[in-house]
Amino acid sequence: MVSGKDSVPPHSGSGDESGSGGGVGHALSAEERAEYERLRRHAGVRHRRLRKAGAAVLLVVTLLLAPLAVVAAWVQETVADTDRYVETVAPLASDPAVQQVVIDRLTNEVVKNVDVEAVTDALTKVLADNGVPPQVVAGAEALDGPLRAVVRTVVDRNVTRVVTSDFFRQTWEGSNRQAHAAVVHMITGEREGALRATGDTIQLDVGSVVDQVRQRLVDAGFDKAAAIPDSDRTVTLFHTDELGKAQDAMRLLDILGTWLPVITVALAALAVWTAPGHRVMLLITSLGLGLMMVVLLVALAVVRRVYLDAVPPEALPPDAAAAIFDTFLRFLRDSTRTLLVVFLATALAAYLYGPGRIARRVRALARRGTTAAGRALRRAGVSTGRTGRRLAVHPRWTTGIVLGAGALALVLWNRPTVGAVVLVAVLVMVVLAVVAVLAAAADPAPDEAGLTRPG
């Protein structure tokens, strides 16, 4: 006696209700088929749960790596690309707050080395020795303050001319281009180059500017300017007790700068592919990555506040410190904002292709508009013929190609901005609308049923 529990579902067209004739199986009873369906549903549910769990893990890892990937890519690009580095620091030479720091520092050094008191003492002695009235001698003694103010005014004027001239900007960019490796030295803590880490501070060497200012002041008749020391040729940019930890983090990010973004994108794509619902997972992933970009922007704002609070006003005025921070990190913030717009646009596209009520209304409205435009063209005698019919038959393919072309344009774009993303998105929507109009403008396919010969 053959047990029904060992049988398998019969192959189509081979079932023998009585099991005679040496068949390999027999038709399942109602109880057996119910058990089979239950087991199949159970296996399917278990498989879906495993896929959801795997996609969730991949998504969490992707979200945690996303901010680090953005920062790592920025660090790697800024360090490796000389033109990018010079483009980053060039605006500092034209920033009024930074210029004023350099002007004040150099002016103070010159005035400090001009012995105004000795000049007034010598003048007083000469006047007294030559029998000048006492009130005149007393007046000469009071010249110390005014003379010092005059000296400072003249020195400040000359220093300002140098620092605000094109020469200063050219020297600034040239020095940074030649000493581009200084950024690497700052990250690694090596004390070399124009930008260096010393203890818990990061300093910028302005030695070439000091040399030029000193020479111009000497040429203008201020011989004492030659006494400007070579030892004080730096401007403190950053001051933090956590510099060592920051350097360690920067070194790690520099190492991972090339691969971390690639790994993050691969994990995001794998999460979408693993999930049972690809569209829903794409929507969730895009929103999650957008949220992480917002978190990164907030973190940069917090770091900026901490940095400004940590810089002593006597070392660097708050406006100059803010200008330096904003200039150094402006490309990182721009990239983060651009990615935020990209992820939001991707999430919106994923939603509009879904079954939501608003999405269906938007698609229906777009469909009515493009259909009406296509029919108007056809009534005007403009028909797209076979090409239009092919576009109408394969809407998914045409939509995928257009979206892929838009994504490829952003990938190939050299450092896209928010404006570039918006431009590409608008062009994609325009192209999709044009394709839909062309599909609607096609003549109806000829009825081939009448061409078939009767049988």
Structure description:
This protein is 71% helix and 3% strand. The protein has 455 residues and is mainly α. The chain has a 3-stranded antiparallel beta sheet. A hairpin with a 2-residue loop joins strand 1 and strand 2. It is elongated.
N-end to C-end Cα span: 51 Å
Could you describe the largest sheet, including whether it forms a barrel?
3 strands, antiparallel
Radius of gyration: 38 Å
Number of beta-strand segments: 3
Order of helices and strands: HHHHHHHHEEHEHHHHHHHH
Rough shape?
elongated
Low-confidence stretches: 1-8, 10-24, 448-455
Tally the helices: what do you get? 17
Let me know the average pLDDT. 76
Strand content: under 5%
- Strand order of the main beta sheet, please? 1-2-3
The level of helicity is over 70%
The structural class is mainly alpha
Structure keywords:
455 residues; mainly alpha; 3-stranded antiparallel beta sheet; 71% helix; elongated; disordered N terminus; disordered C terminus
